[in-house]
Write a structure and sequence with these properties.
590 residues, alpha/beta, Rossmann fold, Hypothetical Protein Tm841, Chain: A,domain 3, Serine Threonine Protein Phosphatase 5, Tetratricopeptide repeat, 3 domains, six-stranded mixed sheet, binds 2-acetamido-2-deoxy-beta-D-glucopyranose, nucleotide-binding
């Protein structure tokens, strides 16, 4: 295995990928000799026009994984980035798909594809098979001048032509109708891609890519799906990149690129396509950026939005934006472009799952989700000295914040270094809450206001532990709330703390001795329950934290991190808690 691929032999790669497809969809079969994926004859439900497509491999799930009910009838694959031969295509049309209602071939505008598919179409016609061909060129990445006679290349917008034609054919439409609607769709598409790097083709020397590779931080705007050059390379950020891409796609005054006029008066379908190497997480962020800019700069709010992996350039680190201007197909109910896009397709590569019915129920505008209104916390009868508690807690939190560098240093040695910052973030959030909170002499309302901050501001394991502990503490306090207002006593605190420890043990196996914050928490609670003295309890916590030095971790991330020098430092979480508690006892004395 090389550093780049699990499968390095390109022939083996393409063949095995094709062979896998029928395993995921029993309605299709693989003719591996001709690299054809096609509907099984017995799986075809009723007579229909066959839709055939294909092209070089490396664009998966296009085209082979789009074969299935409601989409393609057959797909012919070439080697990576190379057109299949006319002979392969001829065999597909003549022998692997139904021909009785005619065949529509949909192909992207690349010289090799147009020639080979074209030749096969002519051969099929000469055999008396009604065959049409639609060539898709949706890419506006390169303008008219540079594109010259060749015209626009085909990229991801092509899948919308496939989908619309496939769904219409499945409804029994005639070849003439399917061809017209496919052409209408192709005529109203604009797409543009951008990539952060060239893709490496398995089996080829990596040097070929390296030669012309983009520099760190550069993006190539308008790059094609076979590493073809785009219009420019520059260092920019996502908002500016999307702005440029949308301008190329939509600017009616750009004579070189104005292929389709799309305005806010049109119904628009947006497809944001992953070129193969962008994480779904990042694609989500990109999609959101595109949606926001379309709304802000063009007043366009697409009525369908597809975001996902539809046509790749191997593991290309890029994405493309496609806009389809929805046109009337003139075919009546059930056969509008939108309904044809929404229609279910049983193809393993088609991932747009939302039906027309669901789309029809979308909210009219993109207004924000209503804010959550939390139920008011019920007051209790446990009273305390608010000013004193606030000042003590402030002292405690400041002591914790001051300990952050130490905690971070310990955690850099035994963990992943974020424990100190996490605690500091939580402490700061509580401090700012204390600043603005309303005065209350109800200890439960006070604890609950802190819980809300901890839950929002602290994440990760320690955030969860603190949140569970504090919630259980609140519960323990409420259970002891007397029938008339009374001051909270050390005994009540002690009992409530015991309850919280018990609750915590339901969710974490950590016990004293495991080198976690429990090594400080347990001694604190136990000591306080017996001594009723916060100073000695805090001291017990500090002793417990010191005791973690040299202790071997059996839980938590420390187990995995196994760095050097862990024997010499205490557990950062236990140390942080001990500092907080020492600060509390110090503050209460004031
Ligand atoms: C777009 O609209 C402009 C202004 O009306 C017009 O000049 C141009 O020809 C149109 N372009 C296309 C591709 O229809
Ligand atoms: C509480 O902790 C203090 C300080 O470590 C210690 O002296 C005392 O004995 C402890 N008390 C109990 C009851 O554990």
């Amino acid at each position: 295995m090389s550093a780049k691929h699990f499968i390095n032999d390109p022939t083996h790669l393409v063949n095995t990928a094709l062979l896998a497809i029928p395993y995921t969809n029993p309605a299709v079969a693989c003719d591996i000799d001709n690299k054809i994926i096609h509907m099984r004859g017995s799986a075809i439900r009723s007579p229909q026009v066959s839709i055939v497509s294909g092209g070089g491999s490396g664009h998966e799930p296009s085209f082979a994984s789009f074969v299935g009910h409601g989409l393609l009838s057959g797909a012919v694959a070439g080697t990576i980035f190379a057109s299949p031969s006319a002979e392969q295509i001829r065999r597909c049309i003549l022998h692997r798909v139904r021909k009785d209602k005619g065949v529509l071939v949909v192909v992207m505008r690349y010289t090799g594809d147009v020639l080979n598919f074209g030749m096969a179409v002519e051969k099929a016609r000469s055999h008396g098979i009604e065959t049409d061909m639609v060539v898709v060129g949706d890419d506006v990445g390169v303008g008219r001048e540079k594109g010259g006679k060749v015209g626009r290349r085909g990229i991801a917008g092509t899948v919308l032509v496939h989908k619309i034609a496939g769904a219409l054919a499945a409804q029994g439409a005639s070849l003439k109708e399917v061809t017209q609607v496919a052409q209408l769709t192709a005529d109203n598409l604009v797409s543009i891609g951008s990539s952060l790097s060239h893709v490496h083709v398995p089996g080829r020397s990596a040097d070929v890519v390296a030669e012309d590779e983009l520099k760190e931080g550069e993006v190539e705007i308008g790059m094609g799906i076979h590493n073809e050059a785009g219009s420019e390379r520059k260092v920019t950020d996502l908002p500016n990149l999307v702005q440029t891409m949308l301008k190329h796609a939509l600017d009616a005054s750009d004579k070189d690129r104005n292929f389709v006029n799309i305005s806010h008066e049109d119904d628009v379908v947006l497809l944001v396509n992953n070129l193969g190497g962008v994480s779904p997480l990042e694609l989500g962020g990109i999609t959101n950026e595109v949606i926001q800019q379309l709304a802000k700069d063009y007043k366009i709010s697409p009525i369908r939005i597809l975001s996902g992996t539809y046509m790749t350039s191997l593991n290309g680190l890029g994405f493309s934006i496609t806009l389809l201007k929805v046109k009337d197909t003139g075919l009546g109910a059930g056969k509008s472009m939108l309904e044809l896009i929404d229609a279910p397709a049983e193809a393993s590569g088609w991932t747009a799952a939302v039906t027309s019915d669901t789309w029809a129920r979308r909210r009219s505008s993109a207004k924000e989700e209503e804010r959550i209104v939390e139920e008011e916390v019920q007051p209790s009868n446990l009273r305390f000295d608010y000013a004193h508690a606030k000042s003590a807690l402030t002292t405690a939190l400041n002591r914790l914040i001051a300990a952050e560098p130490d905690i971070t240093r310990y955690d850099t040695i035994v963990g992943d270094g974020d424990c100190g910052i996490g605690l500091k973030r939580g402490a700061e959030a509580i401090l700012s809450q204390l600043e603005k909170a309303k005065t209350t002499d109800d200890v439960l309302l006070f604890v609950n206001s802190i819980i809300q901050v901890v839950e929002l501001a602290m994440d990760g394991t320690s955030g969860a532990i603190y949140a569970i502990f504090l919630n259980a503490l609140a519960h323990g306090l409420r259970q002891q709330s007397p029938s008339s207002p009374q001051p909270v006593t050390a005994e009540i605190w002690g009992n409530a703390l015991q309850t919280s420890l018990k609750s915590l043990s339901k969710y974490t196996p950590a016990q004293p001795g495991d080198r976690t914050l429990m090594d400080a928490l347990y001694p604190f609670v136990e000591n306080l329950s017996q001594s009723r003295n916060i100073d000695s309890a805090a001291e017990a916590a500090a002793e417990g934290a010191r005791g973690t030095q040299g202790m071997k971790a059996s839980l938590g991330r420390t187990v995995y991190v196994g760095g050097e020098g862990w024997q010499g430092v205490p557990d950062p979480g236990a140390h942080g808690l001990a500092e907080l508690l020492l600060g509390l006892s110090e503050g209460l004395k004031k």
